[in-house]
Amino acid sequence: MGLCLNLASNVFGSWHLNPEERQICERISTTGLSEWKNPDFSYISTPSSNVQQYPFLLPLVFIVYNHNGHEDSPIDEREIDFYIEQSRYAFRPCGIEVSVESIRYVQGPSFLDSLDCHPDANFVGLISEKELCLYGAVHQPDFINIYFVKKVPAGENPDGQSYALNRRAFEYARNVTLDMEQFIGSIIIVDSDRINLSVFNPNEREQVGVEVVPHEIGHIILNQGHEYGFLENLMSDTGYEITLSLTPEQCRKALDSPFVHRRYFLIEE
What we know:
- Helix content is about 25%, strand content about 15%.
- It has six helices and seven strands, in the order αββαβαββαβααβ.
- Strands 1, 2, 3, 4, 5, 6 and 7 form a seven-stranded mixed beta sheet that branches.
- α2 links the parallel β2 (about 55-65) and β3.
- The N and C termini lie far apart (about 50 Å).
């Protein structure tokens, strides 16, 4: 988990899209991706209507890519709702309610099942062509987009790690252009970081070490990396120390995020 930006192929050839793959990317950037399933929102818990208690809103976009058979089970609305409830548990103390803008189950070329990541997982360098291919086909600008992909090989880890692209990382990247700015707020979740609801109790939202989705959201709305030396904090640098807790200062930073919006309500006279 962390701020891992991927290397493009003009530096390391093995991360290069071949001509056929590039043609496919150009096509789907225009046509988009087909959907293999329609979401059933009856399984998604509704956000609180208490605007006074939660005056801010964080809408999320969930994009499930070719995940109709990976791991022990496919990603479904029940699993997505678990991530939503975890995120609410983390951000509600800041006055932020979490909602779902959309859920999309999309299918596309298999070469995007595995994205690319530099072997040094802490390296911030270039955004890969594979990332741009995926984002360009389905990304919803102005929202945090959470992508579920099979893996992102990194170093000795064949499955890789989940990561987020926030503004801080974007500004450090060396190959970005202004048109790529719309992809800030992208989160990649790999298969190995998914929650297995047959093992974890869906009613227990805070389970140390499994808060991957809200942790990555934290990278985006706090616009930061890890909090080193913080025990039992959402942004801890050590997986087993990550909880759903934020400090008052972190809450203040979250409210300044462009992805967090003020909610409005009518005042009865």
